[in-house]
Write the structure tokens for this entry.
Amino acid sequence: MTDLARLEDLPPDYRNALTAQNLVPLWPSLRALLPEGTPRPNTRATHWSYAAIRPLLLRAGELTPIEKAERRVLVLANPGHGLEKMQASAAIYLGMQLLLPGEWAPAHRHTPNAVRMVVEGEGAWTTVDGEKCSMRRGDLVLTPSGLWHEHGHDGTQPVIWLDVLDLPIVYYLEASYHVNGSRQSQRPGRSDGVYAHGGLLPTEVFSRPGQAYPMLRYPWEQARAALLELADAQPQQSALQLTYSNPETGGDALNILGFYALMLRPGQTLQLPLRSPAMVFHLIEGGATVQVADQQFRLAESDTCCAPGFSAVTLSNNASDTPAFLFMADETPLHRKLGVFEMRGPAPASA
Ligand code: GTQ
């Protein structure tokens, strides 16, 4: 590939004349903008240990009252983007949020979509669009773009959850903002049992349900049971993965990021295909190793890691007698909608 001329190859008076007119020559930056063959992501494969996060988050609980934080969150920032950018990948934001007993994180709504993956503690809830969603370990709760949400805690121990937002991409689009609100009146959770049976869709006879986001809470006990049943029913199948979906449309649960629950059989190693979107892995149960290109992350329960797009990812269950359960988030819905989604190579064989 031909080396292109550099900025310094141009005479200073010419460069100054360009700058004065808000003009920039393309060719010195062309290779960086359009690298050969594959992108050169800033996103770096990164591992965040829950054992390291937890005491720092609890200390934040002592240092900063909820009234002074609104959301008491430590952001899992990718050093490849610069920590101050507070992003895990181009489109994914990750944060660990702490709510102490009796605390209330007040109602607001914002343009970025969020989900919560509950990590620890009992008794917290998130009210989304008036619907009270209880939060138990492994549950996924959606707070889609524009819907009011607030968090409360009636239990006795700290509650911690992982926030996954599409904040970086919405911010980049200059479309990120929030509106504060007052305490919502609460209806009991509607979605817990309503969509619990795959293929059987509750049907309104007299009116259309009309809700863009009909299911807001995905209980872990249902996802876990579904994975175990899938493993039983499909003994030959290597990739045991469920997509958190909108049960009315069958499409992704949210518009920008995708969310999945994955099970590794005892002793299983699963090589994922090379794909364009960046991914996040969070270990719900068991022990797993995530290999991203030449880096290896041994995840303990509640650990989180990320992989840039187009990287070779291999997941292994560290245990030979028990399954491992992972929560995954990725940028697939966004890439598909934008027409830049790619998957390279054949579907991998699995040990
Ligand atoms: O709980 O509403 O991690 O608004 C970042 C922004 C959590 C939340 C975050 C938020 C929230």
Q: What stands out?
A: The domain at 46-346 is CATH 2.60.120.10 (Jelly Rolls).
